[in-house]
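Regression test case RT-17, inverse folding.

Input:
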């Protein structure tokens, strides 16, 4: 099944501009930009983590508009290019707001709220840098290209965070559904106990309230999951109501941690950093002494930000690795408990409700381990993005 994902996210202005362009081709690069197999992969109804960067490049409206503005700038039409940067800055402010987690994320797995907050803060920072570039009187083609590349990288990172968040929310939904089954079993058991005079009506009402509260939590979790999915679809070119087959994230490669060396990597991060490169080019373009001092100060501040964040992101990786190890240990213990409970149930020394409770505890441990895995994966991705030049300056 092919997906309908080309002009779906166009603004009215861009739609008018492209009215004469055949649907399905407006965003895409020329056919020779990818092999036939690669185009088939990008155009199918499957969304995979490894193709997010290509999807953003080929079908994201911001990237497409940036490319038009850059071509205009190459023709020396800098005012149009700066106007486009201003428009994109405002669009990215909107994206940052959309990614900011609301109260519905209170039932989300640990770490997901922080990941979404991090992504929102990064998007807000890219918006500020675009706004700054649009207002600068010394912006040239190279500086524009740096800011456009920074925005594109930021959008890819945002899509990765959203895809990670979506998988965590899917896992959490499975736990909530199982918990609903457990609470319903508890409610039925409470009714039986009431009939036998073992509990009061208040106990029955409490069991009913537990189910009602969980239903509200499930609805909030569904809202969060659907919101993340919509944002991910729009970023990668699907329509807002599309139903792509979103595949799981790659498995952990713990050897990535062994290869991290912040003392060495920080120099690569500084050399690649978009802000450092941008302000360095700005310094080359100004001659007035106060402007040069300002540009040099911005370079120094950007370098210091990179140094601090590379170290912080590395420590976050180590913390998440410890959390993951702890979660795996807890899961191993719960596997033993579940095996023992299943045996007790088989020989008649444990009730069906007790077995059901242990099953829920086991699923909780599974979800905790998977959440820790995904949080560690995201922490490693954030570190790698910093080395590739993507670090928030605010």
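Golden output:
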């Amino acid at each position: 099944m092919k997906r309908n994902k080309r002009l779906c996210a166009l603004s009215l202005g861009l739609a008018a501009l492209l009215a004469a362009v055949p649907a399905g081709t407006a965003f895409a690069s020329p056919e020779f930009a990818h092999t036939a197999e690669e185009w088939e992969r990008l155009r199918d109804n499957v969304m995979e983590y490894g193709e997010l960067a290509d999807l953003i490049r080929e079908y994201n409206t911001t990237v497409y508009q940036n490319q038009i503005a850059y071509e205009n700038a190459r023709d020396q039409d800098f005012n149009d290019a700066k106007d486009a940067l201003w428009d994109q800055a405002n669009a990215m402010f909107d994206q940052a707001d959309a990614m900011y987690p609301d109260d519905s994320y209170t039932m989300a797995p640990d770490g997901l709220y922080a990941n979404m907050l991090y992504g929102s803060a990064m998007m807000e920072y890219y918006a500020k840098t675009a706004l700054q570039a649009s207002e600068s009187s010394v912006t040239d083609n190279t500086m524009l290209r740096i800011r456009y590349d920074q925005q594109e990288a930021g959008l890819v990172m945002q899509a990765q965070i959203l895809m990670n968040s979506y998988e965590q929310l899917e896992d959490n939904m499975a736990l909530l559904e199982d918990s609903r089954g457990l609470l319903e079993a508890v409610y039925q058991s409470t009714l039986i106990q009431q009939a036998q005079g073992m509990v009061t009506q208040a106990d029955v009402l409490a069991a009913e309230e537990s189910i009602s509260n969980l239903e509200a939590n499930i609805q909030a979790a569904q809202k969060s999951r659907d919101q993340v999915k919509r944002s991910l679809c729009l970023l990668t070119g699907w329509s807002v109501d599309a139903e792509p087959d979103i595949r799981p994230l790659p498995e952990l490669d713990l050897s990535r941690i062994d290869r991290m060396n912040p003392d060495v990597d920080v120099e690569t991060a500084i050399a690649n950093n978009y802000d450092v490169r941008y302000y360095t080019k700005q310094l080359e373009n100004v001659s007035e002494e106060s402007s040069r001092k300002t540009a040099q100060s911005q370079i120094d501040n950007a370098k210091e930000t990179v140094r601090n964040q590379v170290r912080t992101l590395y420590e976050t990786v180590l913390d998440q690795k410890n959390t993951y190890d702890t979660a795996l240990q807890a899961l191993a213990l719960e596997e033993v408990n579940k095996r023992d409970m299943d045996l007790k149930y088989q020989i008649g020394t444990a009730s069906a409700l007790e077995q059901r409770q242990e099953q829920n505890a086991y699923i909780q441990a599974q979800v905790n381990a998977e959440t820790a895995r995904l949080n560690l994966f995201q922490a490693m991705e954030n570190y790698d993005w910093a080395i590739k030049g993507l670090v928030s300056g605010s």
